[in-house]
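Page 42, continued from yesterday. The earlier attempt failed because a stray header line got pasted into the input along with the sequence. Redoing it now with the clean sequence only.
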Amino acid sequence: MQSDIKLRMRLTDFTSYADAQAHASGDALWDLFDGDREQLNIAHECITRHADGSGRAAVRIAHSDGRDEILSFDEIAAGAAQFAHWLVAQGIAPGERIAFMLEPSLPFYVCLFGAMQTGAISVPLFTLFGPDALRLRVDDCKPAILITNAEKAELARSMSRFDPKTKASDPAVFQYTSGTTRELPEAVRHTHRALVTLMFAALYGTGIRPGDEFFCPSSPAWGHGLWHGTLAPLGLGVTTGTFAGRFDPVRLMHALDTFGITNISAAATHYRMMKNSSKGGDFSFHFNKLSYTGEPIDPATLDWIDAHFKVPACSMYGTTEIGVVLVNYPGAQDFTVKPGSLGKAIPGQKLQVQRPDGSECPAGEIGELMLWRSGGWMSTKDRAKTDEDGYFYHCGRADDVIISAGWTMSAVEIENTLLKHEAVLECAVIGVPDDKRGQVVKAFVIANREGSDALVRELQDFTRERLAQHEFPRIVEFVAELPKTPAGKVHRKVLRDREVAKALAAAD
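This time it went through. Structure tokens are written below.
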């Protein structure tokens, strides 16, 4: 009898790790939606079906200027329908691209969901793109319309409903990953069906369930902010929150307190910036679930999270191209979260750490993280290791490995050690060319006191004492800021490119 009851339950009714392994399936995911494998529309699933006239909140926006803005499902649904009718009146056909370069706001969500209702493709663009970066993306996707401010989104206010007729396999979103203005990454093309497969990450990566008060400060122009911070919670009828304007960690913490947020998913950098503000004690927090993505969190920040948020920090690992594949099952009482771990595979996924010859690495040995996909192993381009319990640990990008005088070192491990020093606020480590050793470790450090030769020696000794005698930064450069991707990750490639350019200039 009990098993019959469970079969009638939805995946959102289960919270345990054991139930995730027992009941998660493709069919169970489809049961969460109105659409089916033939007909599905993201805008309907995320907005329209939840617009019941009650005025229930869909999105809470914390603006950097201190304003709080709350948008209801009803408000977004009406605006999106009006915009959809306007697009049709302009002759926009299914499959054409509608690009919009807007901060989180009513016009942003109207554009996002209104375009998808018509069968057009939504192309969200980051608001801090410069002219070159914007031109590259516009030239690539060739949008029929580019909306850059609210005035250009003139809505036909006479129509408040629009009936979408998209197939599940129709394209819905073009997503550009971060890149330089000289090298444009290819747009990742998502269909409406992507909303369904996304739910594995939502249920087991961020732990979203009906009743959560959710918040994701990442920009919805990027993968984490759009899919995990916007579409996933709205698809389950969960009120979400976001940040608009220049990021401020104190403003974020104020919003988390004011909105009574119980579940947050953010980039590692967001948590580190909250810690560095030293203002965590000024606010009250209400979390029962917490996740992060983008890069590992250093131990000092994990300690701060434990002290102020009082729930385990659950890593969520994936990429725009492959989706989320390793999670820590936030909210699952029968799953032990190991600090610093990427967790275990989501239901149905298979991952392995391998040596160059394709054999599996034993526990503790660093190798390349491989994902089983379409009948074969594909590389994630990340290095990792496992422990005796089958948990995965990130050991840096493949190109973040530093080989110096025959020694193999991890940039991430050296960074984590430096971040334990009381003078280090942020840091990035790369390998730079060296005639004698091939490469040496160079650390770029943002410090809370003036950089000096004495502090350099202090940091070198601090690192050497905690790692190995050879594993320390032979070069330390104090900087005011570090280059970061729009998603908030330290952009080590920019640092490496700068060092190569300096070396070439010195050789001329």
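Notes: Confidence is low (pLDDT under 50) at residues 1-7, 150-159.
Reminder to self: strip header lines before submitting.
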